[in-house]
Amino acid sequence: MEKISVKTEGAVSDILIGMKWEGVGNMLPGSGVAIITDSNVNRIYGEKFPDFPVFVVKPGEVSKKLEDIEFLAERLLESGIDRSGFILGIGGGVVCDIAGFLASIYMRGIRCAYVSSTLLSQVDASTGGKNGVNLGSTKNLLGCFRQPEFVICDPAMLQTLPEEEYFSGLAELIKTGIIGNRKLFEIIENNHERIIRRDAELLAMLISMAVGVKASVVSEDEKEGGLRRILNFGHTFGHAIELYKSFRHGYAVASGMELAISFSVAKGYLPVDESERILNLLKSFKLLRRHEVPLSQIGVLLRHDKKKIGDDMYFVFAQGIGKVTVEKIPLNEIIEFYRGGLASR
Ligand code: GLY
């Protein structure tokens, strides 16, 4: 097992990679714990959950609403959870978001931790301390920072993931290689077959490398005042595509990376051979889909992105595999790039 710590002001969050999730009971207080999960995870793993009250939400973004948070808070109150209580989220990114958000506001904040059950959440969503719910169609508009005390990433849980969910996580893994670890990218490139068959040993190593990148970024810039923006590579167009096309997050980010890469080449930041290598890797795992968003919609969707500041936006450009740069540019330049790309298709 490997332990990677995210160290922020006043908090240390331990990410435990390769630990068997069934051992989580030993890490919890003896009483006052509530478990939050979704119905898919509950169906597969529920029987082995520690013996505490379990609250089950519907799988997917549909549950990331204030209404659901309010409903869960009422259930916690009924169960007698007080200020000394502890929320354990067992699930993927949505469950971690809900559990973390609820833990941060319930009685002005109680303790929390996660068992992270998807590749997407193990490599990205469960680490970092951002929690949020959606407001209408705007993703994560309402949220806060709260670091979980620990996160268990057990690669054995990845064996039960539906194919699309697994590959959605792979897109974030590839993103992490592009933004900060060329070796990670190359290991993915050179181990296609082992990744397809979900080799647990390889996955544990890749998850550790990705968490290592994220932990060092978040430890340096928890609140996204600078460096942390690099984690948004592929996410500006990705979020618009996710909303408009209802793709799974990783597939939308893969399409967002395709656009960000060609924008980077157009700006002269990224050599064409590096861009082709990235595109080939995304294609080799069938992560790229048709993703056109009508011009009438793209501006509206980008304007709702919470990364927008006035008429500008921080955009993450690739400079090479393992190196990115962030530039504040006019939103109109991003929209114009998209318009040009559509026209040339
Ligand atoms: N919880 C996801 C993040 O902080 O990036």
Report what the structure shows.
- It is a single chain.
- This protein is of the alpha/beta class.
- It folds into 2 domains: 159 residues, 3-Layer(aba) Sandwich (Rossmann fold); 164 residues, Up-down Bundle (Dehydroquinate synthase-like, alpha domain), CATH 1.20.1090.10.
- It contains 13 helices and 12 strands.
- The strands form 3 sheets. It has a 7-stranded mixed beta sheet with strand order 1-2-9-6-5-3-4. A 3-stranded antiparallel beta sheet has the order 10-11-12.
- 46% of the residues are buried.
- The site of glycine has 4 residues, from loops.
Radius of gyration from CA coordinates: 20 Å
Task: Report how far the terminal alpha carbons are from each other.
Answer: 48 Å
How many beta strands in the DSSP annotation?
12
Q: What is the 3D form?
A: globular
* Total individual domains: 2
- Could you give the order of the helices and strands? EEEHEHEHEHEEEHHHHHHHHEEEH
SS strand fraction: 15-25%
Largest sheet: 7 strands, mixed
Q: For this structure, what is the CATH class of the largest domain?
A: Mainly Alpha
- CATH fold description of the largest domain: Dehydroquinate synthase-like, alpha domain
Q: Give the mean pLDDT.
A: 96
What's this entry about, in short?
With 345 residues, the chain is α/β, with parallel strands linked by helices.
